[in-house]
Amino acid sequence: MNRQFTVYRRLHTTEPPNVVYDAIEESLRLTVGGAIERRGNTFFITNGTKNVNFAFVAEFTAEISLTQPAPDIVDVQGTITIRPNTFFWVSLVIGFFCLWFLWVFNVFYFVMDPRMNYQTALDRVQLKGDPAYGA
Fold it and tell me: How many CB atoms lie within 10 A of CB 57?
């Protein structure tokens, strides 16, 4: 019952890799929050739910990977996975037996879309040499 979403951004920059990693990590920290851990060229984000509507019914994990297909180009690809949390299951069971109106919380899980927040975090990254920002 897990749901997955993807985000993508291509950066054109002449900055060294450590500057790119720091800029992306800072943008993720400010926009989506959560616990961010960097391993190699991948960021692992746990519970990055800042400003995500209806986030209280799911647990979030995300992997943001950076690759360099050519000089001065960095591809940023991310996968966001959400899964129902305990609140979701309690609402489902109690709603089934007596308080049917609690199912509205279960509906929130299916209409929630965290892509906008994660894509915004990637779009906020501004680096020297990126023609998208006229630098």
Answer: 20
